[in-house]
């Protein structure tokens, strides 16, 4: 059976964020023969009340056809942002209506928030003594209201196993793609990203606020250096070599890179090499040693260390988990 995702629609919701789970999870198709084309997830939208209209922050309401009972059937619950959280936002406590709805959630259900949906998870106790994030503009207020939560205001999303939180809007897309990648591998997630026309992977640790996402006219960028590096990931790449592609000093290049990308050149290179290794492990029969060389890690030991740090599993386990599906997709 498909993994069931219940999206909790609250009054004052943001329509864009409400649609993210269906757009990402609802378009995830099984590549395995016999199941090929079948949906990997079933997405349902529910309200805290019986079926009926739910207000949005725009000039229209939406008609939700499921009540809170749908939460009892969910494997994953997603709580998008709302601008009408009332006592949840003001006092850090659930309304009786919301508490009654969340009581339907089964123990062990994966809980996910997008943007200020994190307030709901925190008020319900899901984030106690856990790391979490929310939209950067609400981070200070969130931390004051929920001192028991370890708030990181700078990252796109945080995966703490069965509880995941994200920053605003586009970070919700990143988090949902991350979950598909975690559940079904990079090939399935990348195909959804390609169909959705969004970047296939932005690491959760990337900064929320990037100073120059669109370069000013006549402003030197680091795009040439990134393209150059992607074309030679299997070779040693020094910071000064990347800076030379843009005719910059190492200091200027490093500052500009972080302003544009949100992380350091070294962090970015590691991310790209991990993604290359994941692709090779899923789509090829290359030995672990060869994958390590082709991805730019040099040795199998280095590959194991980086994959373990990024994904929590060694290369052989990752390949065993996702190799079949990726090969069939190709």
Whole-angstrom Rg: 21 Å
Share in β-strands = 5-15%
Question: Class by helix and strand content?
Answer: alpha/beta
Rounded mean pLDDT is: 89
- What's the β-strand tally? 10
> How much helicity do the residues have?
40-55%
Global outline? globular
- Termini separation comes to 24 Å
Largest sheet: 6 strands, mixed
The ordered string of helix (H) and strand (E) elements is EHEEEEHHEHEHEEEHHHHHHHHH
Strand order of the largest sheet: 2-1-5-6-10-9
Number of helices: 14
- Low confidence ranges: 325-330
Write a compact overview of the structure shown:
The protein is of the alpha/beta class.
What does this structure look like?
This protein is an alpha/beta fold. 43% of the residues lie in helices and 12% in strands. It has 14 helices and ten strands. The protein has helices at 15-25, 87-90, 96-102, 118-123, 139-145, 170-184, 186-196, 223-230, 239-245, 250-261, 265-283, 288-295, 300-311, 315-329; strands at 3-9, 41-47, 52-55, 61-64, 76-79, 110-113, 131-132, 150-151, 157-159, 163-166. Strands 2-1-5-6-10-9 form a six-stranded mixed sheet. A two-stranded antiparallel sheet has the order 3-4. Strand 3 (52-55) and strand 4 form a beta hairpin. Helix 11 (265-283) crosses helix 14 (315-329). The longest helix is centred in the last third of the chain and has 19 residues, at 265-283. The radius of gyration is 21 Å and the shape is globular.
List the helices and strands and how they pair.
Blueprint lengths: L2 E7 L5 H11 L15 E7 L4 E4 L5 E4 L11 E4 L7 H4 L5 H7 L7 E4 L4 H6 L7 E2 L6 H7 L4 E2 L5 E3 L3 E4 L3 H15 L1 H11 L26 H8 L8 H7 L4 H12 L3 H19 L4 H8 L4 H12 L3 H15 L1
